[in-house]
């Protein structure tokens, strides 16, 4: 029972971080139909920036997180305006190749600036253990679950209560109708990339607090793709459910089966879902007249 509880908490906390990263992926896809293969690198950059500001610049962790958020917003806007905006109207494969190239460039920049040596992340979330149903689980994982829940609620309120959030939803539903209503679609695209950067930074910081700062973070970011395929490329709810399912699946596989299968099983699930439900569990089925 103790092992089951520990694996469940591990899976849910990892899944919550994946859901937060996948949320940024979904935002970009819903607003601009761009598949962002660089989302994992945004996680890595966020973690390294917070580490650098706290350890090297000696700033308070809250200031460091705010600084990383500002860096992510700026990076997202620059990527959208200088790299992706000129590709509007181009074949989707061209945009995909550009985001794959962007992922490689960002990863190389991280290596050039900070190298390959793993670094201990400054502890600002308690690392003690707590007793939960007879099992010892890390308090940092429970904190991660709570903080991700708060972040997801904040995003939900933004989308439902703020003018910019409602504009993003309008563009996601129908770009032409949004244009007719006077909504700046280009500005919404930039906002989507900025918010995707913010969600990635928060996810990267929470993940670094669990595993340290290293290239492992960008590898973890690759699990975003099984998450969004499972939940649906255009579904925010799907990102949350998919994150939880993939997190639990990898944790249980690693704990009960082992043999490295936990690194493979998410992609097996991805293939199976594509065979059964090509649009994911919550994805919108689109039928186009030709």
How would you sum up this structure in a few lines?
With 290 residues, the chain is mostly helical. It is built from 12 helices and 2 strands. It has one domain (2-126, 138-276): Orthogonal Bundle (ABC transporter involved in vitamin B12 uptake, BtuC).
What is the CATH topology classification name? ABC transporter involved in vitamin B12 uptake, BtuC
Beta-strand segment tally: 2
The major sheet is characterized as: 2 strands, antiparallel
Please work out how many helical segments DSSP would assign.
12
What is the rounded Rg? 19 Å
Q: What is the residue-mean pLDDT, rounded to a whole number?
A: 83
Biggest sheet: strand arrangement: 1-2
As for the number of domains, it is 1
SSE run? HHHHEEHHHHHHHH
**Any guess at the CATH architecture?**
Orthogonal Bundle
Structural class: mainly alpha
What does it look like?
The chain is mainly alpha-helical. It has a single domain, classed as ABC transporter involved in vitamin B12 uptake, BtuC, CATH 1.10.3470. 73% of the residues lie in helices and 3% in strands. The chain contains 12 helices and 2 strands; from the N terminus they run ααααββαααααααα. Strands 1-2 form a two-stranded antiparallel ribbon. Strand 1 and strand 2 form a beta hairpin. The longest helix has 31 residues. It is globular and about 60 Å long. The relative contact order is 0.20. The model has no long low-confidence stretch (mean pLDDT 83).
């Amino acid at each position: 029972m103790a092992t089951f509880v520990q694996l469940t908490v591990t899976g849910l906390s990892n899944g919550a971080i994946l859901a937060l990263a996948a949320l940024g992926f979904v935002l970009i896809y819903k607003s601009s139909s761009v598949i962002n293969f660089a989302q994992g690198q945004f996680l890595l950059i966020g973690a390294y920036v917070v580490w650098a500001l706290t350890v090297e610049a000696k700033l308070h962790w809250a200031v460091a997180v705010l600084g990383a958020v500002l860096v992510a917003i700026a990076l997202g806007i620059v990527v959208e305006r200088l790299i992706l905006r000129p590709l509007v109207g181009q074949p989707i494969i061209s945009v995909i190749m550009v985001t794959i190239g962007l992922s490689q460039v960002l990863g190389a920049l991280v290596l050039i600036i900070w190298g390959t040596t793993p670094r201990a992340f400054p502890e600002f979330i308690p690392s003690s253990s707590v007793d939960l149903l007879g099992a010892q689980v890390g308090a940092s994982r429970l904190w991660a679950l709570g903080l991700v829940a708060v972040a997801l609620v904040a995003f939900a309120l933004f989308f439902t209560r703020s003018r910019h959030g409602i504009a993003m939803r309008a563009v996601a539903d129908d770009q032409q109708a949004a244009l007719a209503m006077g909504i700046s679609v280009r500005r919404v695209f930039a906002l989507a990339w900025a918010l995707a950067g913010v969600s990635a930074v928060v996810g990267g910081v929470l993940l670094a607090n669990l595993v340290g700062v290293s290239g492992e973070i960008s590898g973890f970011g690759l699990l975003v793709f099984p998450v969004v395929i499972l939940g649906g490329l255009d579904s925010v709810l799907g990102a949350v459910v998919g994150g939880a399912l993939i997190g639990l699946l990898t944790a249980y596989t690693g704990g009960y089966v082992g043999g490295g299968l936990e690194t493979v099983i998410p992609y097996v699930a991805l293939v199976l879902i594509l065979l059964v439900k090509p649009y994911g569990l919550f994805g919108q089925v689109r039928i186009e007249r030709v």
